[in-house]
Amino acid sequence: MQDIVILCVRWEQAKQALAEISDWGGRILVDATNRPANEDAEGKTSSEIIASYAPGAGVIKALNTLVMNWMPDSSENDRKLVLFMSGDDKAAKQKLARVLDEAGFAPVDLGGLIESGRLQEFGAPLSGLHMNLVKRMNS
Predict the structure, then answer these.
(1) For the stretch 84-118, what's the b/e string if a residue is b when 16 or more beta carbons lie within 10 angstroms of its beta carbon?
(2) How many CA atoms lie within 13 Å of 11's alpha carbon, on the beta-carbon side?
(3) Residue 107 has what pLDDT?
(4) Domain Pyrroline-5-carboxylate reductase catalytic N-terminal: where (predicted)?
Protein backbone atom coordinates (compact mmCIF):
# COMPACT_ATOMS: atom_id res chain seq x y z
CA MET A 1 0.00 0.00 0.00
CA GLN A 2 1.23 3.46 -0.88
CA ASP A 3 1.79 5.85 2.03
CA ILE A 4 0.07 9.24 2.03
CA VAL A 5 1.93 11.92 3.99
CA ILE A 6 0.15 15.21 4.64
CA LEU A 7 2.46 18.19 5.13
CA CYS A 8 0.58 20.53 7.43
CA VAL A 9 3.14 22.84 9.02
CA ARG A 10 4.00 26.52 8.85
CA TRP A 11 5.84 27.36 5.62
CA GLU A 12 9.03 28.15 7.52
CA GLN A 13 9.06 24.62 9.00
CA ALA A 14 8.40 22.68 5.78
CA LYS A 15 11.98 22.00 4.68
CA GLN A 16 12.98 20.69 8.10
CA ALA A 17 9.83 18.58 8.44
CA LEU A 18 10.40 16.93 5.06
CA ALA A 19 14.05 16.24 5.85
CA GLU A 20 12.84 13.77 8.50
CA ILE A 21 11.99 11.29 5.71
CA SER A 22 15.08 10.24 3.79
CA ASP A 23 13.41 8.00 1.18
CA TRP A 24 10.33 9.46 -0.51
CA GLY A 25 10.24 6.85 -3.27
CA GLY A 26 6.63 5.94 -4.00
CA ARG A 27 5.05 7.99 -1.24
CA ILE A 28 2.31 10.51 -1.89
CA LEU A 29 3.02 13.92 -0.35
CA VAL A 30 0.01 16.18 0.11
CA ASP A 31 1.23 19.77 0.29
CA ALA A 32 -1.21 21.63 2.54
CA THR A 33 1.15 24.55 3.14
CA ASN A 34 0.68 28.19 2.19
CA ARG A 35 3.72 30.28 1.39
CA PRO A 36 3.50 33.89 2.61
CA ALA A 37 2.41 36.11 -0.27
CA ASN A 38 5.31 38.51 0.24
CA GLU A 39 8.03 35.83 -0.03
CA ASP A 40 10.02 35.89 -3.27
CA ALA A 41 10.07 32.40 -4.77
CA GLU A 42 11.70 33.40 -8.08
CA GLY A 43 8.54 32.51 -10.02
CA LYS A 44 8.14 29.05 -8.50
CA THR A 45 4.94 27.81 -6.90
CA SER A 46 5.06 26.71 -3.30
CA SER A 47 4.51 23.11 -4.40
CA GLU A 48 7.49 23.23 -6.77
CA ILE A 49 9.60 24.24 -3.80
CA ILE A 50 8.05 21.52 -1.61
CA ALA A 51 8.69 18.92 -4.35
CA SER A 52 12.38 19.89 -4.38
CA TYR A 53 12.53 19.07 -0.65
CA ALA A 54 11.02 15.59 -1.19
CA PRO A 55 12.63 14.00 -4.27
CA GLY A 56 10.77 10.91 -5.43
CA ALA A 57 7.46 11.85 -3.80
CA GLY A 58 4.26 12.18 -5.81
CA VAL A 59 3.40 15.73 -4.74
CA ILE A 60 -0.22 16.87 -4.69
CA LYS A 61 -1.26 20.39 -3.69
CA ALA A 62 -4.44 19.99 -1.62
CA LEU A 63 -6.10 20.79 1.70
CA ASN A 64 -4.56 24.27 1.78
CA THR A 65 -7.49 26.43 0.66
CA LEU A 66 -9.88 25.65 3.50
CA VAL A 67 -10.78 27.36 6.71
CA MET A 68 -11.20 24.74 9.43
CA ASN A 69 -14.55 26.01 10.69
CA TRP A 70 -16.00 25.26 7.23
CA MET A 71 -15.75 21.55 7.97
CA PRO A 72 -18.93 20.73 9.88
CA ASP A 73 -20.54 17.31 9.76
CA SER A 74 -22.47 17.50 6.51
CA SER A 75 -23.91 13.99 6.64
CA GLU A 76 -27.39 15.24 7.54
CA ASN A 77 -27.86 17.43 4.48
CA ASP A 78 -25.98 15.47 1.78
CA ARG A 79 -23.58 18.35 1.19
CA LYS A 80 -19.90 17.72 0.56
CA LEU A 81 -17.22 20.35 0.96
CA VAL A 82 -15.25 20.78 -2.29
CA LEU A 83 -11.50 20.19 -1.97
CA PHE A 84 -9.22 21.18 -4.84
CA MET A 85 -6.12 19.22 -5.73
CA SER A 86 -3.34 19.63 -8.27
CA GLY A 87 -0.57 17.23 -9.22
CA ASP A 88 1.25 15.48 -12.04
CA ASP A 89 0.92 11.90 -10.74
CA LYS A 90 -2.52 10.71 -11.91
CA ALA A 91 -2.46 7.50 -9.87
CA ALA A 92 -1.56 9.43 -6.71
CA LYS A 93 -4.39 11.91 -7.34
CA GLN A 94 -6.86 9.08 -7.87
CA LYS A 95 -5.82 7.47 -4.59
CA LEU A 96 -6.08 10.76 -2.69
CA ALA A 97 -9.46 11.46 -4.33
CA ARG A 98 -10.78 8.11 -3.06
CA VAL A 99 -9.56 8.85 0.47
CA LEU A 100 -11.10 12.34 0.43
CA ASP A 101 -14.38 11.04 -0.99
CA GLU A 102 -14.56 8.34 1.70
CA ALA A 103 -13.94 11.06 4.30
CA GLY A 104 -17.02 12.92 3.03
CA PHE A 105 -15.43 15.54 0.78
CA ALA A 106 -15.87 16.29 -2.93
CA PRO A 107 -12.38 16.27 -4.47
CA VAL A 108 -11.89 18.29 -7.67
CA ASP A 109 -8.81 17.60 -9.80
CA LEU A 110 -7.61 20.88 -11.28
CA GLY A 111 -4.77 19.39 -13.35
CA GLY A 112 -0.99 19.64 -13.20
CA LEU A 113 1.01 20.72 -10.17
CA ILE A 114 2.53 23.92 -11.54
CA GLU A 115 -0.23 25.40 -13.70
CA SER A 116 -3.24 24.57 -11.59
CA GLY A 117 -1.29 24.70 -8.34
CA ARG A 118 -0.97 28.46 -8.92
CA LEU A 119 -4.76 28.73 -8.54
CA GLN A 120 -4.45 27.47 -4.96
CA GLU A 121 -1.60 29.75 -3.86
CA PHE A 122 -2.33 32.16 -1.03
CA GLY A 123 -4.31 35.07 -2.50
CA ALA A 124 -5.08 33.22 -5.76
CA PRO A 125 -8.63 32.72 -7.11
CA LEU A 126 -9.30 29.41 -5.30
CA SER A 127 -7.64 30.33 -2.02
CA GLY A 128 -10.29 30.46 0.68
CA LEU A 129 -13.14 29.71 -1.72
CA HIS A 130 -15.96 27.96 0.13
CA MET A 131 -17.89 25.59 -2.14
CA ASN A 132 -20.21 22.69 -1.43
CA LEU A 133 -21.37 19.91 -3.70
CA VAL A 134 -25.04 19.25 -3.03
CA LYS A 135 -26.46 15.84 -3.83
CA ARG A 136 -29.46 16.08 -6.11
CA MET A 137 -32.60 14.45 -4.83
CA ASN A 138 -34.55 12.22 -7.22
CA SER A 139 -38.28 12.91 -7.19
Answers:
(1) bbbbbbeebbebbbeebeeeebbbbbbeebeebbb
(2) 14
(3) 92
(4) 2-34
- Dump pLDDT digits (tens) for 1-46: 579 999 999 999 999 999 989 889 889 999 998 887 666 667 788 8
Domain count along the chain: 1
Q: How many C-alpha atoms does 84 have within 13 Å on its Cβ side?
A: 23
Q: Is residue 115 part of a domain?
A: yes
16 in any annotated domain: yes
Give the Cα separation of 4 and 89 in Å (integer). Answer: 13
pLDDT at 130: 55
Tell me how far apart the alpha carbons of residues 42 and 86 are, in angstroms, rounded to a whole number.
20
**Could you list the residue range(s) of the whole structural domain that residue 11 is in?**
4-134
Helix, strand or coil, per DSSP, at residue 51: helix
> The CATH number of the domain where 73 resides is what?
3.40.50.720
pLDDT digits (tens, 9 = 90+) for 75-96: 555 667 888 899 999 999 999 9
Residue 139 domain-assigned (yes or no): no
Tell me if 53 sits within 8 A of 14, measured CB to CB: yes
